[in-house]
Amino acid sequence: MNLINDIKAVLFDIDDTLFDRKTAIRKILRGMKQKHPELFQEIPEESIFEAFCEADQMVLVDFNKGESGRGVRDKRSRRFLKTLGLPEEFSARITSMYIAAYPDVSSPVKDAREVVERLAEKFSLGVISNAFPDVQYNKLKGIGVRDLFQVILLSEEVGIRKPEGAIFQKAAKLLNVQPYECFFVGDSFDTDMVGAKKGGMKACWFNPDRKQIIDGDVKPDFEITTLTELLSILL
Fold first, then answer.
1. Pairing with 162, which of 25, 37, 59, 186 sits 20 to 30 Å away (CA)?
2. What's the Rg (C-alpha) of the chain?
3. Beta strands across the sheet bearing 9-12
4. Nearest to residue 23, comparing CAs of 61, 4, 49?
5. Is 187 or 58 the better-scoring residue by pLDDT?
6. Would you tell me how many other CB atoms lie within 10 Å of the CB of residue 69?
7. 20-to-16, 128, 209 alpha-carbon distances in Å
8. Residue 86 in contact with residue 78, Cβ under 8 Å?
9. Same domain, 87 and 112
10. 3 state SS of 126
11. Strands 151-154 and 182-186: what pairing?
12. Which of 61, 57, 11 minimizes the C-alpha distance to 186?
């Protein structure tokens, strides 16, 4: 049986699926260091980047468990500063500078715009993301694909987070299709693949780093290392 015969809608995660978040973080931190040398002093750029990514990964777990966006952002900044040996009292300043810089950063994953444009010719499109509205819409706009999506569901707006199946089912309903008629693409196995399968969708794991599957009970229907592979699968 062809797994894609019934597909009417394609849905995406945003961060590290359409938007290259690590590249964006590096650009933002570089800009912050250049504008505020008094804050970061002589700390090497790579050390700043590694400290932020470490803090980001630590608080991501808390966020996916339901902690508020504001609380997570503050905790991330505090952990970031602590790792660098800088005063945590600057956390609010770091958070504000980071959020303010996002609208000016365009950092698409390779071929993201071209692939989305091609798929839009045949399918209804949607987005499901565990993230904050004040930055996610700007990411899609910066890539040049914001207007190609009929549905954009952000966890902080709808009150449901991946991997809850309900957010996937809600997206299908808003697109006027059944979950089994949806093809979801995401980079996170734990939230995207597990959630898509819970929600009854076909799941495609965008896995450019070739990570190994940990949960043997859940298997994606497809696995890709480049977004252009979607065109061969779906068109």
1. 25
2. 18
3. 151-154, 124-129, 9-12, 182-186, 202-206, 222-224
4. 49
5. 187
6. 15
7. 5, 16, 13
8. no
9. no
10. strand
11. unpaired
12. 11
Q: How many domains does the chain have?
A: 2
pLDDT in tens, 161-209: 999 999 999 999 999 999 999 999 999 999 999 999 999 999 999 999 9
Query: From residue 14, how far is each of 58, 92, 121 by CA, in Å?
Result: 19, 25, 20
| CA neighbor of 119 nearest in space, from 148, 150, 141 | 148
Among 51, 86, 104, residue at a domain's last position: 104
Does 129 share its domain with 48? no
- 11 forms beta bridges with 126, 184
- Does residue 58 form part of some domain? yes
Amino acid residing at 185: V
Return the residue matching tokens 């252009």: 228
Asked if 83 and 51 count as a contact pair (C-beta separation under 8 A), the reply is yes
Range of the domain at 64: 21-104
Q: Which residue has the higher pLDDT, 6 or 134?
A: 6
Residue 41 binned pLDDT confidence (cut-offs 50, 70, 90): confident
Which residue's entry shows tokens 């966020």? 63
Mean pLDDT, the chain, rounded, equals: 92
Helix (H) or strand (E) holding 223: strand 222-224
Query: Is the Cβ–Cβ distance between 185 and 155 less than 8 Å?
Result: no
Which tokens sit at 123?
């399918």
Quote the percentage of the chain above a pLDDT of 90. 77
